[in-house]
Design brief:
- It is a single chain.
- With 232 residues, the protein is α/β, with parallel strands linked by helices.
- Helix content is 34%, strand content 16%.
- It has eight helices and nine strands.
- A nine-stranded mixed β-sheet has the order 1-2-6-5-4-3-7-8-9.
- The radius of gyration is 17 Å and the shape is globular.
- The termini are far apart.
Length: 232
């Protein structure tokens, strides 16, 4: 298994980060463990409120099952209960996964279920936090969410509780031009009004067609998450 590497901004392998999303919180160094080539692929960030309506939970799991055989990298902190369950589903598939930790990566306890995907090259674990940040706090979780959202081509938000931290982050990302994707549901009308693209994974056309549709959405985006020239 590969060892942890920390690289500084400006060094070879340091990803391009759109600073309009991160501002003063743009990291000066990043720590990696796993397949760094995953950063070169199209990435879909996953962010969800801690509490989520039951039927949206089931729809999200349908989406994750459709997504796990695709070539789209799913990036997340996988910290909330919903995100943790999504990671469990994704690890059973074959698509690449990027886990962005809301703490430093050094001296972390490696979960046994990370070892096989790390060894096969389909998992990248990284952190934008300094080496001494061993505790997860509300602030580090928010910094981390902003980081992997900026790093990704689009952000999938199964649910954002109105007035909550996830809702505030989505509004900020939408104002900055980041593409948002959500589930077609009455609970997500505020996200759809922000411009989030609604999808329905429970329809009869889910599965492969859903993954292909998502890949087309990501393919139409520039590196900063905006639509490329010539695309609507």
């Amino acid at each position: 298994m590969s060892s942890t590497k920390r690289i500084n901004e400006g060094s070879p392998g340091f990803p391009a980060l759109p600073k309009n999303y991160l501002g003063s919180q743009t990291p000066k160094s990043l720590a990696f463990l796993g397949n760094g080539d995953i950063l070169k692929q199209k990435k879909l960030a996953l962010i969800c409120s801690v509490k989520c309506p039951g039927d949206l939970i089931l729809q999200t799991f349908d989406f994750m099952q459709a997504l796990r055989e695709s070539e789209v990298v799913v990036a997340s902190g996988f910290h909330s209960p919903m995100e943790k369950e999504c990671l469990r589903i994704l690890l059973k598939g074959s698509q690449p996964i990027l886990i962005s930790l809301p703490r430093s990566i050094e001296n972390m306890r490696m979960p046994d279920h990370y070892r096989k995907p790390l060894a096969s090259g389909r998992l990248l674990i990284m952190s934008c936090l300094p080496e001494g940040q061993k505790r997860i706090t509300t602030e580090t979780a928010l910094i981390n969410n902003r980081f992997f959202a900026a790093l990704s081509d689009a952000v999938f938000v199964p649910y954002a509780a109105p007035g909550g931290k996830t809702d505030a982050l989505c509004r900020q990302l939408a104002a900055q031009g980041k593409k948002l994707i959500t589930l077609q549901h009455s609970e997500n009308q505020s996200l759809i009004q922000l411009g989030a693209v609604p999808i329905d994974p429970s329809s009869k056309t889910a599965g492969t067609k859903l993954s292909q549709s998502l890949i087309r959405i990501l393919g139409a985006l520039g590196k900063d998450g905006h639509h490329s020239e010539g695309n609507s």
